[in-house]
Each structure stands twice: as C-alpha cells, then as structure tokens.
Automatic annotation (TrEMBL):
CDD domains: HTH_LacI, PBP1_LacI-like
GO molecular function, one term: DNA binding
Listed SMART domains: HTH_LACI
Alphabetized InterPro entries for the sequence: HTH_LacI (IPR000843), LacI/GalR-like_sensor (IPR046335), Lambda_DNA-bd_dom_sf (IPR010982), Peripla_BP_I (IPR028082)
Domain HTH lacI-type: 20-74
Pfam name, any one: LacI
Protein name stated in the entry: DNA-binding LacI/PurR family transcriptional regulator
Gene3D superfamilies: 3.40.50.2300, lambda repressor-like DNA-binding domains
Source organism of the structure: Rhizobium viscosum
Keyword set, alphabetical order: DNA-binding, Repressor, Transcription, Transcription regulation
Length: 346
C-alpha cells in the first residue's frame, strides 16, 4: 500500500510550521531581498513607497524579523541570563518575574537558567550561557558557586549579582543587617526578652547576614537568645526550626525568621503542634513580604523586599556596565520596610 498521501500531508504540515521568510515578503511586495532587510533595519535608507509595500506584505504574511540571526551577525545576542537555584520558591520567583518584565521592556530576551544542585546541572547551565553569548548575566542570591563567576568574567560577560557580593561584579543587596537589628530592637522594646532566630543551614550570604545581625543585637540588648535552623530556606525548614525552638520548657517569646517561607512553617507548627497563640505567646517577624504573608492564615509582620525595585536597580546597573565596561563595580543597597500585620504589632 502506498504511503504517498501520508507523506504529502506531513510535508504540508512541516511547510505550515516554517516561519515566514524575508524572501517571501520580497516576492509578495515585488522588491528585492535587500530592500526588505533595509526596511527593518533602524536608520537604513529605503524609499517611502518601497517601505510601504514591504510593511504591507509583512503584515499580510505575518512576518517578523529574525532577531536571533541578526544578533549572531552583530555578535550580540541580546539574551540576558537570569541564574538561580530553585527559582520557583518564595521571593526568588517574584524577583525573576520582575527581572523578566524590565528586561523585555528594554528589548532584551530574558532566559531563566535553573542551575540545579548537582555538578552536571551546574556545568550545563555554564555551557548554556557561554555558548549563547549572553549579553549579561544576572545572578540571584545563594547561587551559583564562585567558579561560575570566574568563567563568565573570563569570557567578558557583565555580571550583576543580587543578594550577595562578588569581586568585580555589580551588585544589588537588601539592607539585611539594618532590618535584622530593627527586628531585635522592636521585640525588646515591647517587653520580649527571649528572642530567637529561625534560619537555615544553607549558608547563603543573605541568610548569614540576617541571622548574625539579629543575634548580635539581641545579645547586646541583654536578651536570652535561641537559634533554630532547618536544612533549607523553605516551609519544611520552618517546621524543623519550630520543633527545635518550642520543644523545651523554656521557649522564646519572639522569633525572627530569615524569610517568609520559614515563618509560614514555624507559625503552622507553633499553632498546630504546640497550641501557641500568635502573637500573645510568641511574636513573629519574617523577611521578604511575599504575597502569602498577607493571607488571613498568616497575617505576617515582615520586612518587605520589593522585587520591582530590586529588579529595576539590577537592570540599571546592567545598562551602565554595557555602556561603559571599564567602570568601577556599582553597588545598590535597598533598605526593607517593616510591614505591620497581626503576627507582631509593635
């Protein structure tokens, strides 16, 4: 039995899936291929009548310029890598979304690279960014290790780092220490004397800065200090921290959580497993102000990191670096605002 009709159908489907080419536009408009190219090249010379015919044909066919091919010819991809580990969790998800928004507005093409957590995954992420000649790389807090930075810098790619510091990179950081000192101070000023921090064993720069600033301030004030940590900076780690902090007869009466995800787990554990009242028995402050913090289940008092502000500052630093590669590294520090809700009211 002949499979001719089947093959013909496949060929027709494949043909329909092809992008409209500049050559097709030229044929429909009755102009040369170079006239189509000049029409879509900013600043190029083309007669008004020719431009009108080309634009009319392009609209009829649904033609769009192949920006990827144009970028290759110009040795500039316009790709900007957003690099993160677990980009779907907490504040990182909102920051990645905000970065994508601002990058698209400026005509860049954001590409989200999840570095993963294994050596092979990290190597694949490195090859992706270097191989596609990313215009710049924006790296979120906690990832990746230093050798990722070194490889990018050897290839001349501008680096903008959010939430950590790296030599020769532009960076944006939240005022972690300012917020953490304030958390300890407002707890103490309202009569809380057994102060705890719920953190993480991840050892990321932001987590370390928040924990250490809170603990040093609490000790200086003369408070009794407790520490509870989970394996990561997520909801489950909040439960782990809560179990460590509330399992003894002497419990903290105020807990500062290194981020909102930890705070959510800790609050649920305190209420469901230990039957504590919030804020009467234990007051809680978080960090980030993700949308869930305002949910009726939590009503979490927390320090707000505005993802739009952080993203805007990062893109501004990127544009500054692209315009002048020889500038000294730029530094932006954004001080979080304390958002008061029901988990603690100073």
């Amino acid at each position: 039995m002949s499979d001719g009709p089947v093959n013909d159908d496949k060929a027709q489907k494949k043909e329909r899936m092809r992008f409209v080419s500049a050559e097709q536009v030229a044929q429909l408009a009755g102009v040369s291929r170079s006239a189509v190219s000049r029409t879509f090249t900013p600043g190029a010379s083309v007669a008004p009548a020719t431009r009108e015919k080309v634009l009319r044909a392009a609209q009829e066919l649904g033609y769009h310029v192949n920006d990827l091919a144009r970028g290759v010819l110009a040795n500039q991809s316009r790709l900007v890598g957003i690099v993160a580990t677990k980009p779907e969790i907490g504040f990182r998800a909102h920051l990645a979304a905000a970065l994508s928004k601002f990058l698209i507005q400026r005509g860049s093409i954001p590409i989200l690279i999840n570095t993963g957590q294994t050596e092979d995954e990290l190597l694949a992420a490195q090859k992706m960014l270097i191989g596609h000649r990313a215009e710049a790389i924006i790296i979120l807090s906690g990832s990746p290790p230093a050798r990722f930075f070194e490889l990018a810098q050897r290839n001349g790619q501008p680096l903008i780092v959010i939430g950590r510091s790296e030599p020769d990179a532009d960076h944006v950081r939240a005022g972690n220490s300012e917020a953490s000192r304030k958390a300890a101070t407002v707890f103490f000023e309202t009569g809380r004397r057994r102060l705890a921090v719920a953190g993480s064993n991840t050892g990321t720069p932001s987590i370390i800065e928040r924990e250490s600033a809170f603990l040093s301030t609490a000790e200086r004030l003369g408070a009794e200090v407790f520490v509870g940590r989970g394996a990561d900076s997520d909801y489950e780690s909040g439960i782990t921290a809560g179990r460590a902090l509330f399992s003894n007869s002497v419990r903290p009466d105020a807990v500062y959580c290194a981020n909102d995800q930890i705070a959510f787990g800790l609050m649920d554990y305190a209420r469901q497993e230990v039957k504590l009242r919030i804020p009467e028995d234990v007051a809680i402050i978080g960090f980030d102000d993700v949308p869930e913090a305002a949910w009726l289940s939590y009503q979490l008092t927390t320090f707000r990191q505005d993802p739009l502000v952080m993203a805007m500052r990062a893109v501004e630093l990127m544009e500054r670096r692209l315009a002048n590669p020889d500038l000294q590294p730029g530094y932006e520090r954004v001080i979080p605002e304390l958002i008061i809700r029901q988990s603690f009211r100073p």
